[in-house]
Design a protein that fits this description.
mainly alpha, Growth Hormone, Chain: A, 2 domains
Length: about 375
């Protein structure tokens, strides 16, 4: 199964875009390994401060996505993703001088802005490089850069922290996005589709898919945020293996299943994805041990691998080509929204009713996602371009 491109120049351009984007997501992943020891060892902070660094990052990314989308529609994705890499490098530079919490918060805000730009523009560029019949696969394969970056970045940063020191780890936050910026040179520019409307654009066609992505994000947050605590409490531990099974299934699912939204359509694939998420969340919630829960996590990983491209296709296929950057911005903002809601909601559920309630909430959101997709069944309002 090759790259979702017809001609060799586009195939090369797509591969280069994925590799370049990997640098940005490596920096973002590395920050998650650097922030906790930086807060506790250098700044003398606590877990609350660490939590706030996550919050300000997510809010910055969510708030700046519409700016990214409007910029894509007006100037094209190359300029926006390049600006995103610069913002990531500037945020990484602030880590060097972060001797107070407010400086670290400023660094995380810049990184949030950069994430919004890189994620949205990279996705828009990947879609533009692919033929209309293989856009779902393009979305899936571009997602590999995200997963690989968030997997490799923390490991690389932790290695540098353990064997070299803070300075070397923080250097990764600057060098990786700058190398990514250089990697953009010479990549094919996507075709423009006419002038966009003035002002900030929020296409309503993308609101429902974005909400669906938020629902799926709650299921994901329950696994990555609570699996370790869940199976420590149930005895035997092994929650990290559950998370690993979920991550591996998502990664492989994007490769093996990435063509299904193009083959069966976004609507059917979205239904399948939410049905799988519902089954997987229930299985994890009822599992007495990690090795049974890992099976449920694999099902949830397959669900996420299908859900992201399916809902993205719903968003862009119903939006005029000249507003698709804004549509992708609104859509991907659902990911930030889902995690922002999931943190306090799932924490409250666990506190009040135990860890099983975390997955009951996730299953409820998966069921709500099924209803949402069922309510979305209609032909695309805009022909593919």
């Amino acid at each position: 199964m090759g790259l979702p491109l017809l001609g060799s120049p586009r195939r090369v351009a797509f591969a280069r875009l994925v590799v370049a984007s990997l640098g940005g997501f490596m920096a973002l992943g590395a920050a998650y390994a650097i922030v906790p020891p930086l807060v506790t060892e250098r700044l003398g902070g606590d877990d609350v401060t660490v939590g706030w660094t996550i919050t300000v990052f997510a809010l910055a990314a969510l708030g700046f996505r519409v700016v990214a989308g409007t910029g894509i529609d007006r100037r094209g994705p190359r300029l926006v993703i390049g600006a995103g890499f610069v913002l990531l490098a500037l945020g990484g530079t602030l880590f060097y001088v972060a001797d107070a919490s407010w400086i670290l918060f400023a660094a995380r805000v810049l990184q949030g802005f950069g994430q919004a730009f890189v994620f949205t523009a990279g996705l828009a560029w990947a879609i533009a490089l692919a033929p209309a019949s293989r856009r779902g696969q393009a979305i899936s394969l571009f997602g590999l850069a995200i997963w690989a970056g968030f997997s490799v970045g923390p490991v690389a940063a932790q290695f540098l922290l353990d064997h070299v020191g803070f300075g070397a780890a923080e250097l990764l936050l600057v060098v990786a996005p700058l190398l990514a910026l250089v990697g953009l040179v010479g990549i094919i520019r996507p075709a423009r589709h006419g002038a966009s409307a003035p002002g900030i654009s929020i296409p309503r066609e993308a609101l429902r898919p974005g909400l669906g992505l938020a629902f799926g994000g709650v299921v994901m947050a329950g696994i990555v945020g609570f699996a370790v605590l869940t199976f420590d409490a149930r005895g035997g531990g092994g929650g990290s293996y559950v998370i690993g099974a979920y991550g591996a299934a998502t990664f492989l699912g994007r490769i093996v299943l990435g063509h299904l939204p193009d083959t069966f359509g976004a609507y059917k694939t979205g239904l399948i994805a939410f049905a799988l998420a519902l089954v997987g969340a229930v299985a994890i919630g009822l599992s007495p041990s990690w090795w049974i829960a890992a099976g449920g996590a694999v099902v949830c990983g397959a669900a996420w691998a299908l859900l992201f491209p399916a809902l993205a296709l719903m968003a862009i296929d119903r939006t005029p080509p000249e507003r698709r950057g804004a549509a992708l911005a609104v859509y991907t903002g659902g990911f930030d929204l889902g995690f922002a809601v999931a943190g306090p909601l799932l924490g409250f559920a666990a506190h009040q009713a135990g860890y099983g309630a975390v997955y009951a909430v996730g299953a409820t959101f998966a069921a709500a996602g099924l209803v949402l997709v069922l309510a979305s069944r209609r032909p695309p309002a805009v022909a593919s371009a």
